[in-house]
């Protein structure tokens, strides 16, 4: 008869490293802090007296969800339940980050923020979307640019025309001003 081989790891959970616990505690704390910040900010929104359900409902709801999620993560970490590390075929830890792609994406985001007022939301969104697709390796960048323009115009119509949100039109679309 053979006896089963036992290893020290068999039958007990590996104790999580301090680094993993600290990372999850920091994540939980940042989530709670973001929720508190958003909750405090939502009470600063002016609500017209004619509205029973005002513009603060959604921000308060999101804030409460953030705070609850952060507290839930914190409680689980304190109880010793850590998230499982990612196991993916796509992750190769031997490769260093592609800082050029990251710099392109950050530059596109900054350009988007700076160009919104100058060229309008739709065109700035098209540049951001097309540029991000190009940075991430899109074969046909011009298709991504056209899709970005379509998305930008759709957002402009839905949020500007239907919901009354003020998104800058820019000089090329200024003739649409009376619609928005």
Automatic annotation (TrEMBL):
Question: Sorted alphabetically, which InterPro entries does this protein's record hold?
Answer: DUF1468
Superkingdom, according to UniProt? Bacteria
Key word Transmembrane helix present: yes
Q: Which residues form the DUF1468 domain?
A: 26-168
Residue spans crossing the bilayer: 25-45, 57-82, 102-129, 141-165
Organism whose genome encodes this protein: Pseudolysinimonas yzui
Q: What Pfam families has UniProt attached to this entry?
A: TctB
* The keyword Transmembrane helix appears for this protein: yes
Keywords from UniProt, A to Z, are: Membrane, Transmembrane, Transmembrane helix
Q: What is this protein called?
A: Tricarboxylic transport membrane protein
